[in-house]
Design a protein that fits this description.
Layout lengths: L2 H10 L5 E2 L5 E4 H7 L5 H17 L8 E5 L5 E5 L1 H10 L5 H31 L5 H7 L8 E2 L1 H19 L6 H22 L17 E2 L2
Antiparallel strand pairs: 1-2, 2-4, 3-4, 5-6
Helix pairs in contact: 1-5, 3-4, 5-8, 7-8
Length: 218
């Protein structure tokens, strides 16, 4: 990551973050306007309105993310969620340096999340005979990609993750495709070992009922 992106990550949003009495974080649109170097409020508000439309198209409640308020000077402003800040950035004009930096940062972070999900699913697919994390959650009747496991299933997954990490540490100049293959291979080898031993495969193990003591893997 470039120095500009590091600076954005560490300062841009965190420096102007506020918290309400309940500890919920929020941002003021007029402060964000200054960060992104918009001198005209009307132009920046047009970006906010585009972001609100994006929020609606995503079938999210706009009022959870954009709350219109009035400043002490009787100026129009908005209290924004972190998600609102992100979609404002995505709708802003990249001709402004800070906007361009922010858009690059968000694209970079999005790609990182995609890769983490890709690697995670590769490991699951190896261990669960082709099933992704979402497939496993649906099969168990769980929501939000939860994966509740009993102790044997949890142990197999912890071993899979630990062994994968050890193998990756030994690799040099490895690309995304090879990393994905290693995640899958480790899961598959553990599955084959379970089959050879004649013990129960992870997808055939019972799912424990939810409780405070239940182990979850995300």
């Amino acid at each position: 990551m470039s120095n500009d992106l590091k600076e954005y990550e560490e300062k841009t949003l965190e420096d102007i973050k506020h918290k309400d009495k309940r500890g919920n974080e929020f941002w003021y649109a007029r402060e964000l306007q200054k960060i992104f170097e918009y001198t005209d409020w009307k132009k920046f508000e047009s970006v906010i309105k585009k972001a609100i439309r994006t929020c609606k198209l995503s079938k999210l409640n706009e009022y959870d993310h954009f709350k219109m308020i009035s400043t002490k000077r009787k100026q129009k402003d908005y209290k924004l969620s972190r998600y609102a800040c992100y979609i404002i950035v995505q709708n802003a004009d990249p001709k402004y340096k800070k906007v361009a930096e922010a858009q690059t940062y968000i694209a970079t972070q999005t790609r990182k999340r995609e890769l983490i999900e890709q690697y995670e699913n590769a490991g699951y697919m190896g261990l669960y005979n082709g099933q992704t994390k979402e497939d496993i959650s649906k099969r168990k009747g769980l929501k939000n990609n939860e994966n509740i496991m009993n102790k044997n299933e949890l142990a197999a997954n912890i071993f899979r993750i630990s062994l994968t990490e050890e193998l990756l540490k030994k690799q040099e100049n490895i690309d995304e495709t090879e990393i994905t293959k290693i995640h899958y291979k480790v899961g598959k080898v553990i599955r084959e070992t379970i089959e050879e031993l004649g013990t129960t495969l992870p997808e055939d193990l019972p799912t424990p009922k939810k409780s405070r003591k239940t182990k979850k893997v995300r």
